[in-house]
User: Which sequence fits this backbone?
């Protein structure tokens, strides 16, 4: 079962699981997800879609649960921050309850946001983070932190087989056109000839991972033969770019004549972010394979096709 399965990452995960020969249940309330992302799977007898909000209890029979349900872009998760908190916390609790009843293995899609605006750079899993508990990003950051806590408490108290991955910024086809994340914004702006909007001076950094690399990492984590290895494990691409560099790369690759404009920086926007991936390399034999320019090429083609 994949919660959030009609979203950007969830739909790629459903594709991968179907390809592996699994029987897949996709659970999604379509808040930010979209039936178009899974349309190609809807006629497949090994694929079922359930429109459901994970903040409500769910009774189904499954043996593995990937818990991805949660809006991920700052614009979306700040749209209804109370619902974001509820989704992270109650959604995790319900899925953990389900996993407990079924003795199913459960993986949580956590995030590099648990590190907040980090004072340690790059970020290893043992770094505990620097998160504002009362800011505009807190519904997401603290929600995801509480979800990790619940996962580890279910492991300790209920002996549940849990897996936690901390996903760093991921991009690729099926990001929604208007979800406000930096790669979709820049590519769409460049293709439309609109201004490229850099928030702040563009010196903040992010490390961008192509979606296929992430799916491989999540799949390996779920199916890892070491049952007792729960993570958390960073899954990300350590190649780090400033937002200004990213804008320039997108302009060059699209051949666009868009101009760069500078807008105010949202509050609590992390200054830098880059994963240490030693744990993923040693425990999962995983490292990212797709470089930014290659992934961007595929992403630009996708958005060109849409537009
Ligand atoms: P997305 O918005 O495309 O997908 C999230 C999906 O969850 C959507 O289909 C949405 O409709 C669904 N959803 C939201 N609330 C729900 C609820 N209450 N009940 C049922 N479904 C609900 O975002 P994404 O990028 O695919 O992110 C998927 C997961 O990965 C999220 O948990 C996110 O926090 C995590 N993540 C993503 C990134 C990234 O860079 N893309 C980075 C770190 C973590
Ligand atoms: N739950 C669920 N599906 C199940 C089993 C449990 O949605 O198949 C929900 C249940 O509604 C509860 C939560 O998961 O709110 C936690 O369940 P658990 O059994 O761990 O705790 P309890 O029900 O004892 O509070
Ligand atoms: N950003 C930007 N212009 C945009 C969208 C985002 O400069 O049109 C910046 C944003 O302020 C942040 C970085 O790009 O510093 C990454 O933003 P995103 O929303 O993609 O992810 P997150 O902040 O959650 O890492």
Assistant:
């Amino acid at each position: 079962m994949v919660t959030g399965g009609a979203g950007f990452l969830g739909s790629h995960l459903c594709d991968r699981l179907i390809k592996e020969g699994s029987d897949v249940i996709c659970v999604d309330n379509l808040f930010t997800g979209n039936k178009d992302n899974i349309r190609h799977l809807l006629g497949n007898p090994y694929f079922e879609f359930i429109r459901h909000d994970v903040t409500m209890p769910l009774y189904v029979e499954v043996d593995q649960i990937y818990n991805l349900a949660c809006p991920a872009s700052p614009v979306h998760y700040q749209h209804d921050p109370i619902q974001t908190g509820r989704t992270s916390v109650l959604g995790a609790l319900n899925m953990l309850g389900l996993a407990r009843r079924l003795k199913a293995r459960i993986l949580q899609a956590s995030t590099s946001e648990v590190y907040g605006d980090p004072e340690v750079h790059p970020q290893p899993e043992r770094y505990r983070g620097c998160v504002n508990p009362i800011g505009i990003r807190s519904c997401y950051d603290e929600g995801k932190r509480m979800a990790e806590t619940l996962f580890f408490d279910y492991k300790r108290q209920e002996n549940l087989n849990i897996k936690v991955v901390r996903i760093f910024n991921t991009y690729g086809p099926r990001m929604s056109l208007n979800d406000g994340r930096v790669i979709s914004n820049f590519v769409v702006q460049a293709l439309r000839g609109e201004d490229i909007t850099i928030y702040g001076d563009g010196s903040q950094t992010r490390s961008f991972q192509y979606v296929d690399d992430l799916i491989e990492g999540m799949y390996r984590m779920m199916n890892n033969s070491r049952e007792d290895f729960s993570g958390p494990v960073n899954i990300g691409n350590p190649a780090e770019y400033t937002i200004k560099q990213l804008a320039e790369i997108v302009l060059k690759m699209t051949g666009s004549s868009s101009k760069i404009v500078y807008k105010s920086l949202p509050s609590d926007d992390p200054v830098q972010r880059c994963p240490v991936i030693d744990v993923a390399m040693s425990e999962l034999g995983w490292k990212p394979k797709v470089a930014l320019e290659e992934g961007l090429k595929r992403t630009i083609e996708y958005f060109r096709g849409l537009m």
In short: The chain has a mean pLDDT of 97. The chain has one domain: 2-306. The CA atoms of residues 1 and 25 lie 5 Å apart.
